[in-house]
Amino acid sequence: MTRVVILAEKPSQAKAYAEAFTIQEKTKTYILLKPDKTFPDGATITWGVGHLVELKEPHDYKPEWKRWKLDQLPIVPDRFLEKVSKGKWEQFQAVKQLFQQADVLVNAADVDREGSNIFYSILRLTGVKGKPVQRLWINSLEKDEVRKGFNNLQNNDKDLRLFDEAKARQISDWMVGINASRLFTLLLQKKGFSSYLSIGRVQSPTVYLIYQRHKEIENFVSEPFYQIEGLFQSQAGDYKGLAEIKEKDKAKVQALMDQYGLKEKEDSTGIVQSIDKKTKYQKSPKLHSLSTLQSVANRRWKYTPSQVLKTMQKLYEKRLVSYPRTDCNFITESEFAYLLNNLNSYQQALNISFTPASLKPNKRYVDSRKVQEHYAIIPTKSVPSQKKLSGLSREERNIYHEVLATMLAMFHTDHVYEETTIFTYVHDLPFKSTGRREVKRGWKELFPKPSTSKQEKETDLPDVKKDEQVGVRLHIKESMTKPPKPYTEGQLINMMKTCGKLMDNEEDVEILKEVEGMGTEATRSSIIETIKAQKYIEVKKNNVYVTEKGIMLCEAIEGTLLSSPSMTAKWESYLKKIGSGEGSKQVFIKQTSQFIEKLIQETPDSIQQVHVRSTGEKTKWNAPIAKCPSCPTGSIMDRYKFYACSAYKEGCKVTFPKKLAGKTLTKNMIKTLCEKKRTKVLKGFKGKKTFSTALTLDKDYKIKFDFEKKS
């Protein structure tokens, strides 16, 4: 008998796998499958809860590393070790026991480097060795795709390389975060800074990108410029045109008017010299990767990138879309075949009907050479009924329609429009007018029609005739140059992906192009959420602004590699080499260590130039919150990742977590607990479902749920 144990990344994923087979038994920690063709002796599916295992904190290695002191830097353990994440001990023990009993292990976590990291980090901490490991590699949670995947399990060679890549990334990010955050915070606190800075390999250059835009806007000086505009009256209607001159000096524009004997605001005549009409064909957009979907959804509905990823994850778990964390815009012939088979059903789901322009794969969308781990985001074979669609949330429905319409667009006709250029001569001075007219909506009929703007109306030109004489009134048009606009969150995703365009060094540009900028499709939205939480940026009306705290961070890291996209590009480039077997995890970690040493040597001098400013945070981050409920002398303080008594050196062991059941515990909640031993009913705790409860403090000063307290 062969005992197969399958590890899913989270319970919802385990449930989706189990539903593709026949379930024998469900428990709190695993699901047992009945024997069948795929698993002749049955199988057990268990799960992580995201990361069951995390890297140890500095104080787990040495107690003295708990305090933030300059003379303890750099903090680099001889060996990096892991521990069970807080609150996840019970599930870890269950997984460990199943791993010990197994004959074959299957890694069925997400098919990316973090999925490999989750599986092998858990496996390593269980101490289980020498058992065969296989890898499930699928792009959809549909039942037939799940069964197909389990019938064609892969070996774990690639998976182990991805684990090395993920672990190198995780350890290096830990080293940079721990050391750089302490270094910059402590040096700035010497200058009177009353808060702390969190610094990261990708988050810091991202803040710096926003800061650069802030500086461009701040330093921009608006200047006037002048043009000659003609207002023309033809038999078919009025239109406007501009002479080809654009000058800061109004006198130069006036001189041109004088040269041609033209007068402002005086009725005159002109001749239509030429009319050039071109028919243009616009192809449908490429299939979506996660970042293009995030960008479109932010522009159209103001959804944040994080909101889009969460919504996509829900649709993926409902088996309506393919794997969301993809950076690819292409599919293979295999996906194209099933999309073609379901074409009519997809049209019905979108409540639209059209005759396909072509039923053959087009290289613009279908190219297996450009598909690596994952293909583009597309609908699955499971086409929802109108009833199921109406049961989705508004966000889910909008995002699903966008994915569906973008896929259907590749079967539709081109969008066709006519572009017209008219040259009207007034006293031999040419005036250019351009306009466009829609000929055929084509694929655009699949998408919501944008509201017709004033500008679009003005681009419609009347049907004038060549050599027609038209009435003219000229004036010198004064306009002002405009500063660049702040990024929206959707544009920020694009900037992170294409920041190579901002760089001067050709080699760096190429690397950024190769690795697609800063962060990955899976992490960019969480990086934006992190820098929001750190109060480095704020979002107002969908525009992203750098805060006073963010400006100070950027002034502190200016000139270092922490402000440069090139550093994160080179890191990502080498990480990819580790994943493909061409690079070494040990070399990467050693280089990170050398980078930190250099930072520790150079930062004390460079930080002298930084102007310490008020960050708008009302209290010192580590100011007393309340009197300790246990000891007579201590106060409860913010210890960055948790709350604890200031008298810990005297032996007081009172600590409180920053998060409990998925909810952040604020300083006010902790103050209330310390002073009144009970809070009011609080919303937003997460278990199998979201729940509300009051919190109480027991006699051992531990926080407990109190479900009996009525709101």
Topology, element by element:
Layout: E1 4-8, H1 11-18, E2 23-26, E3 30-33, E4 43-47, E5 53-55, H2 58-61, E6 82-84, H3 89-101, E7 104-108, H4 113-126, E8 133-135, H5 143-151, E9 154-155, H6 157-190, H7 203-219, E10 224-234, E11 237-243, H8 250-259, E12 267-282, H9 290-301, H10 305-317, H11 333-341, H12 343-349, H13 386-390, H14 394-409, E13 415-426, E14 429-440, H15 454-458, E15 469-480, H16 489-498, H17 506-515, H18 524-533, E16 537-540, E17 543-546, H19 548-557, H20 565-579, H21 585-606, E18 626-627, E19 635-638, E20 642-645, E21 655-657, E22 659-660, E23 663-664, H22 667-676, E24 682-686, E25 690-697, E26 703-706
Parallel strand pairs: 1-4, 1-7, 7-8
Antiparallel strand pairs: 2-3, 3-4, 5-6, 8-9, 10-11, 10-15, 11-14, 12-13, 12-15, 13-14, 16-17, 18-19, 19-20, 20-21, 22-23, 24-25, 25-26
Helix pairs in contact: 4-6, 6-20, 6-21, 7-18, 7-19, 9-10, 9-16, 10-14, 17-20
Pfam families: Topoisom_bac, Toprim, Toprim_Crpt
Family: Belongs to the type IA topoisomerase family.
Domain Topo IA-type catalytic: 159-600
